[in-house]
């Protein structure tokens, strides 16, 4: 059955998530409504401020400043921007730069919006970190009222699912420990996903270093619409905790960049969306392959804006995108 057919059957099969996303955004034959020039300018300014803030965090390992809103001369009888003298409401993306990852946290869902990592043959060969010495911890850099709590996961029925896997950060104990912050976690279905198909997918990413000297990965949650019997599309997801705090993603994405030795060499790019559900290990990984723009539309994030089109190659045309199913020792992985 083709992906297009899967897309027409909103709840059929594990591949529906990626196909339905593409269908939802593309089948109507129209793009998202165009923003006004003022909104466009504000978004552009915010994006520039966000890039600068992330660069500051990466360089100095300190919390990102909140970008101030653009202001212009008041030409009318009111001053809406006067509200900001009391504080800027946000949204605030808590960016944290750690030894083996950089994360951007979504205070509303109590999950990361994205987490980026970098793996190399050399980093994976080092075995200085041991997850037996690591513990799940709350991220105290997040204000308490927006913080994901350990108790929120207790008896929730979901694993504390790493976005950057601990196995990618064995090059030091600090790097390993950093992967156990809850700002690197999302609620994931355990048996059949986090401890199975998702683990095999993470292994696929590591195996890319057999061919490529540098692999960069961004991972995060999605909250995708599903078509209901009345024909309407709705977003629905569980929230765990007491009181309910942490959103349970419907799907997860990975955008993968496999780099060559030369700084100007082509970059093999792959994007995947997987449902947060039990997936048969026999399901081909290519069933979840999507284009980067689908991940962008679904997440509200932008990737690879600075990568020239003539340097992009399709990852799954450069290598075989397939899993090797191994019996991982995942009995304790992510358990509550």
Total separate domains: 2
Largest sheet: 8 strands, mixed
Low-pLDDT runs of 5+ residues are: 1-17, 27-60
Roughly how many Å is the radius of gyration? 21 Å
- Based on CA inertia axes, which overall geometry fits? globular
The CATH first-level class of the largest domain comes to Alpha Beta
Short description:
By secondary structure, the chain is an alpha+beta fold.
Keywords:
Extracellular Endonuclease, Chain A, disordered N terminus, endonuclease
Describe the protein in words.
The chain has 336 residues and is α+β, with helices and mostly antiparallel strands. It folds into 2 domains: 35-64; 92-336, Extracellular Endonuclease, subunit A (Extracellular Endonuclease, Chain A, 3-Layer(aba) Sandwich). It contains 10 helices and 14 strands. The strands form 4 sheets. Strands 1, 2, 3, 6, 11, 12, 13 and 14 form an 8-stranded mixed sheet that branches. Strands 4-5 form a two-stranded antiparallel ribbon. A hairpin with a 4-residue loop joins β1 and β2. The model is unreliable at 1-17 and 27-60 (pLDDT under 50). It holds the Pfam family Endonuclease_NS. Residues 98-310 form the ENPP1-3/EXOG-like endonuclease/phosphodiesterase domain. The active site is at 162 (proton acceptor). Residues 61-80 are annotated as: Disordered. Its EC number is 3.1.30.-.
Task: Summarize the topology.
Blueprint: H1 3-8, H2 16-26, H3 37-60, E1 93-97, E2 102-106, E3 111-119, H4 121-125, H5 150-153, E4 159-162, H6 173-178, E5 185-188, H7 190-194, H8 197-207, E6 214-222, E7 225-227, E8 233-235, E9 239-240, E10 246-247, E11 251-259, E12 267-275, E13 289-290, H9 292-299, E14 312-314, H10 315-318
